[in-house]
Amino acid sequence: MRIDAYSQIGQLYQTTRKTKVQAAGKTAATKDELHISHAGRDYQIAKQAVAQASDIREDRVAAIKAGMEAGTYQVSNRSFAEKLIEEYDKYTMF
């Protein structure tokens, strides 16, 4: 009786191995493909454009420098406080 049980278990493992080998053979025959959507392509183009653009807006920097040197550059206290609070809120939300 025990011999029969062992042979049945052996048969189960052999069929499982065959199935795995057959499945591996089928996967090797398939070809992987990659499709990028139009939105993905647009995102990639936009990302490249941003990467090529300068982080510093030279025209704005030049105007502010000129204003500071001439003594005419003024910052609104209210505007400064609002920006400061916005930045503070970004860091305290987490």
Task: Explain this structure.
The protein has 94 residues and is mostly helical. It contains four helices and no strands. The model has no long low-confidence stretch (mean pLDDT 79).
Q: Which geometry do the CA atoms define?
A: elongated
Number of helix segments?
Answer: 4
Residue runs with pLDDT of under 50 for 5 or more positions? none
Q: What is Rg? A: 34 Å
What number is the mean pLDDT? 79
| Range of strand content | under 5%
Distance between the termini: 66 Å
| Helicity range | over 70%
Structural class, by secondary structure, is mainly alpha
Characterize the main sheet.
none
Order of helices and strands: HHHH
The number of E-state strands comes to 0
Short description:
This protein is mainly alpha-helical and 94 residues long. The protein is built from four helices and no strands. The radius of gyration is 34 Å and the shape is elongated.
SSE blueprint and pairings:
Layout: H1 2-29, H2 38-52, H3 58-70, H4 77-92
Key traits:
0% strand, mainly alpha, 4 helices
